[in-house]
Amino acid sequence: METIESMAEVRYTGEKGLAEALRGADALFVYDFLSTAVPGAWHAADKLRWLHIASAGVDPVMFPALRESDVTLTNSRGVFDASIAEYVLGVIIAFAKDLPRSLELQREGRWQHRESERVAGRHALVVGTGPIGRAIARMLRAAGMVVSGMGRRAREDDPDFGAVHASAELVRHLPAFDYVVAVAPLTEQTKGMFDAAAFATMKQSARFVNVGRGELVVTADLVTAMREGRIAGAALDVFETEPLPPDDPLWTMPNVLVSPHMSGDFAGWRNALVEVFADNFERWHTGRPLRNVVDKQLGYVPSGHLGA
Fold first, then answer.
1. Which helix (H) or strand (E) holds 94?
2. Whole-angstrom distance, CA of residue 284 vs CA of residue 289
3. Closest by alpha carbon to 57, among 107, 150, 131, 4?
4. Residue 177: Cβ within 10 Å count
5. 96 in helix, strand or coil?
6. 29 in Cβ contact with 54 (< 8 Å)
7. Residue 307: what pLDDT?
8. 285/199 Cα distance (integer angstroms)
9. Contact assessment for residue 147 and residue 162, using Cβ atoms and an 8 Å cutoff
10. Hey, which residues are catalytic here?
11. Axis crossing angle, helix 131-142 with helix 81-96, rounded to the nearest 10
């Protein structure tokens, strides 16, 4: 932040002081991307022209007054793409090679030979065709998997996904896939898209991976699907309620891998987020186009926009 401090008056604040700090401010950097304090302090944003959030998802700041304002919204897409893709490949391999069970047996001192599954040749559906979804697709293809995408509109011959199916036809296409990866942005259209109907159509041998937003999933329906054996496993990095409550059944369910919203958090990620903001601040200060401008009606950065 030193470079920015040399060009502008910078005010640092927590949630309680946000409204006071916002008065007269031209730009707001929401470094705490899990904070929901911005809507409550919005009345004080009397001069604000630009808001940048330190995450790819913008749902914590996507409230009606911001949508209707002239304030430009940018995000930090590009920082976590490769790291999340590595996570997704890692949990898929963990499922295929039964690594969680191997660790259990190791702790018990038991030698129990099993056969495992191949990853190559398995079919994966990546729901969400933004930069993170594309990084996941490339990573899974490199491991020999057959990958398709799912986005707002169907198309063929995509350079990363091959075929892209329309999100409106999710239930129709789910039965064809061994792994389903959720990485879609949270919008009114995607909220709760993975519900009882979706899980009921998946293969019983299929695994579900969520690295998008917890609200993409109806958690109660996922718990029921796991208990009734409708799907074979789930790897979850995001949840409707975070932190995940200690008494939540997902903690102890067999074939469920739980991680605390860390799939993208590599060593150095905090500095990388500030670097994205610093680059955009220099652009804003000199009148150049900003990177990662979010379409506030769609809730994400449209394809083809100047990226990170």
1. helix 81-96
2. 7
3. 131
4. 23
5. helix
6. yes
7. 58
8. 48
9. yes
10. 213, 242, 261
11. 40
Q: How far apart are CA 79 and CA 234, in angstroms?
A: 25
CA distance 27 to 266: 27
DSSP one-letter code for 215: G
Angle among Cα 86, 91, 95 to the nearest 5 degrees reads 150
- Kindly report, residue by residue over 247-276, the tens digit of the pLDDT: 999 999 999 999 999 999 999 999 999 999
User: What would the two tokens of residue 297 be?
Assistant: 């009606």
Q: Give me the domains of the chain, ranges plus CATH numbers.
A: 2-78+266-286 (3.40.50.720), 81-258 (3.40.50.720)
pLDDT below 70 — which residues of the chain? Answer: 304-308
Residue among 290, 304, 296, 269 nearest 59 (CA): 296
Asked whether 248 and 213 are in contact (CB, 8 A), the reply is no
Answer whether the bond into residue 245 is a cis peptide, omega within 30°: no
Residue 39: its pLDDT value, please?
97
Closest CA to 132 of 180, 96, 87: 87
Q: What is residue 303's predicted lDDT score, i.e. its pLDDT?
A: 78
What pLDDT, on the 0 to 100 scale, is given for residue 213?
A: 96
3-state SS class at 177: coil
- For tokens 């969680």, what's the residue? 100
**pLDDT value for 304:** 67
Query: In the prediction, which pLDDT does 308 show?
Result: 43
DSSP 221-280: HHHHHHHTTSSSEEEES--SSSSPPTT-GGGG-TTEEE--S-TT--TTHHHHHHHHHHHH
DSSP result, 114-176:
------TT-EEEEE--SHHHHHHHHHHHHTT-EEEEEESS-EEEETTTEEEEEGGGHHHHGGG
Answer for the pair 76, 277: CB distance below 8 angstroms, yes or no. yes
